[in-house]
Design a protein that fits this description.
The chain is mainly α and 90 residues long. It has one domain: Winged helix-like DNA-binding domain superfamily/Winged helix DNA-binding domain (Arc Repressor Mutant, subunit A), CATH 1.10.10. The chain is built from five helices and two strands. The protein has helices at 7-18, 21-25, 37-49, 52-59, 63-77; strands spanning 2-5, 82-85. Helix 3 (37-49) crosses helix 4 and helix 4 packs across helix 5 (63-77). The longest helix is centred in the last third of the chain and has 15 residues, at 63-77. The radius of gyration is 13 Å and the shape is globular.
């Protein structure tokens, strides 16, 4: 499945980049979430490859496990991180 990066990805990237105290100082509102490091790792692999199957191969997990972790991350953040499209990048 091909994916393209959405605004949710940019939001997550800025939260990861800014971190804790500097995010509060810059006025960025952080989301209370129970993110796990493997979910972030899977997300970055999907960003690099723009393909869930190739991302799963890259980090040596099954594609359904990667998909579930990204769906959990999307649910925690309250929005889609990728535009999913079976035929082409969207």
């Amino acid at each position: 499945m091909s994916v393209s990066i959405s605004a949710g990805r940019r939001r997550l990237m800025s939260m990861v980049r800014l971190g804790g105290s500097s995010a509060r100082q810059s006025g960025v509102r952080l989301v209370e979430a129970d993110m796990e490091m493997h979910e972030i790792k899977y997300f970055f692999a999907a960003c690099r490859t723009l393909n869930f199957h190739r991302a799963a191969e890259l980090i040596h997990v099954s594609q359904p496990a990667l998909t579930r972790a990204i769906q959990k991350l999307e649910a925690e953040l309250g929005g889609h991180l990728f535009h999913r499209d079976r035929k082409k990048f969207g």
